[in-house]
Design goal:
2 copies of one chain form a homodimer. By secondary structure, chain A is of the alpha/beta class. The first copy, chain A, has 15 helices and 16 strands. In chain A, helix 10 packs parallel to helix 14 (331-356) and helix 14 packs antiparallel against helix 15 (360-370). In chain A, helix 10 links the parallel strand 13 and strand 14 (268-271). Chain A is globular, with a radius of gyration of 20 Å. Chains A and B meet through helix 3, helix 13 and helix 14 of A and helix 3, helix 13 and helix 14 of B.
């Protein structure tokens, strides 16, 4: 492992706009596109690093806002950084806290100024003030491999004028964050905003790229804007991003969204979906999601997917997992988290193989023709 | 591994009344005395078999009453027995359901007849009727390595007359259970009752032994009767138990109780304590229990016990585990469960080594002189 380098991205080949690449980090080199599970509070809920490694996870994501509140950036710095604190030696990406400020702030009340955002803690209502500089300071202390710029997650829908002003401010925040950034071991990604407006997306992409970040994210809004709008925003922005840097679509983890994202040239995805679904007894399968609480699984002594190579499928039956959920035993959520994460990680392996063999669209069509969850497309 | 044999116990040596022995089961041979973690609902809460094996667990216990209600004995029988259902290939002991009927029945209301006990489910209030024959039928279906006789957990305190009648009925129930027992792969233990009365304990022990069980448990009461009374009940009964069969003290897991029990000649203990304490952020140490939520651990980047060989102590700091509990992350309970189980299992390893070297009392005194939790002695 190479220490103390900014991450590098190498494009290996393209199949349409889908990209097979390589992400070289301080904590290992991984082929892209990848799915990154979320470890909000310095742990992927219920799981240990061995389970993440066993599921062949590459990068995991952790949340700056949550860690700022608990246990605090200074505690993690004293521990020697997030990797040591949580005992994970793969790459870690931290978000900027921006999304949480807009989605989690108590009563959703916030006061956006040029300087930063005033809001109240979702835990105890305490007044907080997050700025681009503070987001960088916290992320620098966390010492993740990849830090994210602090942006405004624009409400949806919003007027052209509001989005324009917000996008311009996010550009100023990106510059301030970049100037304040002070950790030579860490990379910093810019975030393209611009809402649903084509010219603003272009403007944001071009100006963000001019600043020269180590990678680029295409930011969404603070609420679900609908799939069509999301893909439109990706289409508007992605053509202005450089080929030699990774592109990251935040908060996306539904199988069909991974396929749509890869098709447009996205390299990195993250989502709480696999672990959140797991805690509610839902498992991904190639035929769609199944709910393990369903009584039809009471005496079903087969695994969730006989062909799946995850720990859960190799060791436990649907009947047993159903029993754990019916009896409210936490092991159920743990076992399904392992399966769901492995499912998305394995799907990305298959996608990479398909790109390699110039048959990404074929893979996508075959996947979707088997997947019975199309209502959400 | 030998299949289809009743368990065997071989006494290796004694140090005072403390016994070093060998328990030969259908699922492996283990030195005794042992501590058995509890997997009430066919799982030791939050943990997998690999973690139990890694903590060097021998037998684990599962609860007949709970499994009878969920998922039902027939589902487990269809799965091929409890080992296959829960994916654990070490030995499993099931209790009879007796204790739960007396401790968990809705509103504690129950109607004890000669035939059995009428009571209501703690889950949905449904009327249930458990008899010695039904307890055996359920346990036979679960196909545990060791089944327990169905007994009445006598209230405490209780009059001599009540205890006498109850003890006599428990003997009749033991006989009926033994007659109904129908699983040649499974062993059956008798339970000595008799409350706090010396002559009734003797009577119960002698009569139970006459029936010829594969091992013997010294039963307590349905409520905490106090340590002194518990040890008195053990003392009254244990001298009448045969040397060539294992002796089991149910529901005991405090370190000082393990020491007191071993000193009196007990070979097997079980308790929910290590996992229950873990879920409340408490960890065993050789200096007494510590609560990981304590703010003094905020920046303590050492493990719970630097000398402990458990997975948790080898990989995680007190500061990290504290953070998990403060942030209400389930991984905290999982990590402490591993530590606490390993602590008791390792303590039994040390006890066995001490017996081997004829220094059990020395070990006990040294342990207790370091252990700052003596209020409970």
């Amino acid at each position: 492992m190479v220490k103390y380098v900014k991450i590098k991205y190498e494009l290996i080949k393209k199949d349409g706009n889908a990209r097979l690449g390589k992400l070289i980090t301080n904590h290992g080199t991984y082929d892209t596109p990848i799915f990154m599970p979320v470890g909000t509070l310095a742990n992927v809920k219920m799981l240990t690093k061995e389970e993440l490694v066993d599921a062949k996870c590459a990068v995991i994501l952790s949340n700056t806002y949550h860690l700022w509140l608990r246990p605090g950036a200074d505690t993690i710095k004293k521990a020697g950084g997030l990797h040591k604190f949580m005992n994970y030696d793969g790459p870690i990406l931290t978000d900027s806290g921006g999304f949480q400020v807009f989605s989690l702030a108590k009563n959703k009340a916030k006061d956006i100024t040029e300087e930063g955002v005033h809001f109240k803690s979702h835990i105890d209502g305490k007044s907080l003030f997050l700025t681009p500089e503070l987001s960088m300071e916290i992320q620098n202390k966390l010492d993740s491999d990849i830090a994210m710029s602090f942006d405004e997650c624009i409400p949806y829908p919003a007027t052209y004028d509001y989005v324009k002003q917000s996008t311009e401010r996010t550009l100023r925040w990106a510059k301030r964050g970049k100037d304040a950034f002070d950790n030579e071991n860490q990379s910093l990604f810019g975030i393209v905003q611009g809402g649903e407006y084509e010219d603003l997306r272009k403007y944001s992409a071009v100006e963000t790229v001019k600043m020269g970040f180590d990678g680029y994210s295409i930011g969404g809004t603070s609420v679900g804007e609908g799939k069509e709008t999301m893909y439109k925003m990706v289409d508007y922005a992605i053509k202005y991003l450089p080929e030699d840097k990774p592109r990251y679509l935040m908060g996306v983890g539904e199988p069909f969204d991974l396929l749509e994202g890869v098709q447009r040239g996205i390299d990195m995805f993250d989502c709480v979906l696999p672990t959140r679904l797991a805690r509610h007894a839902n498992a991904f399968t190639y035929k769609g999601k199944i709910n393990l609480k369903n009584s039809k699984f009471k005496d079903d002594f087969t695994s969730i997917d006989e062909k799946c190579d995850c720990y859960t499928c190799k060791n436990y039956t649907k009947a047993y997992i159903r029993h754990l959920f019916v009896a409210k035993e936490g092991l159920g959520g743990r076992l399904l988290s392992i399966h769901n994460i492995r499912f998305l990680v394995k799907m990305m392996e298959e996608i990479r193989q398909a790109i390699k063999e110039d048959r990404f669209l074929e893979y996508k069509n075959e996947f979707l023709s088997n997947y019975e969850d199309k209502a959400k497309l």
